[in-house]
Amino acid sequence: MAKTIMVVDDSASLRNVVCIALKGAGYDVIEAGDGREALSKLKGQKVHLIVSDVNMPNMDGITMVREIKKLDAYKFTPIMMLTTESQPEKKAEGKAAGAKAWLVKPFQPPVLLDAVSKLVLP
Fold it and tell me: What is the pLDDT of residues 102-115, one digit of tens each?
């Protein structure tokens, strides 16, 4: 059975690139445009990994990570930030919130898939 990955980014074109890479590697993908939409789509289904941007409208990625970690069903779901932010302070804030990895845009799909394969839940 395919693993499910949620991709959260306000850029439809970036979501598309990530989704093509993930689907090509055999993953099922759920898309969301911001943190609030992502939370509304977490309806108890199994999600093996969440890949999220940091800077988004309505609810930013780090706030979303904090909210997801409060949910019993998802508190152990790994979350990878995929963002243009590369400052150590932002990375530390993400890690403190519960993010497991930090990948800076622009990224190469093989690098993304390598990180995903290491993080995705069994």
Answer: 999 999 999 999 99
CB proximity list for 114: less than 8 A, separation 6 or greater: none
Residue 122 C-beta-side C-alpha neighbours within 13 Å = 0
Mean pLDDT, rounded, of the chain: 96
Determine the 3-state secondary structure of 44 from DSSP.
Answer: coil
In sequence order, which ranges of the chain are alpha helices (DSSP H)? Answer: 12-24, 35-41, 61-69, 88-97, 109-119
CATH number at residue 99: 3.40.50.2300
- Are 89 and 103 contacting, i.e. CB atoms less than 8 angstroms apart? no
pLDDT at 112: 97
- The domain in which residue 70 lies consists of 4-119
Our separate counts of H helices and E strands in the chain read: 5, 5
Number of independent structural domains in the chain: 1
Angle, alpha carbons 60-66-71 (nearest 5°): 125
Per-residue pLDDT tens over the stretch 35-54:
999 999 998 889 999 999 99
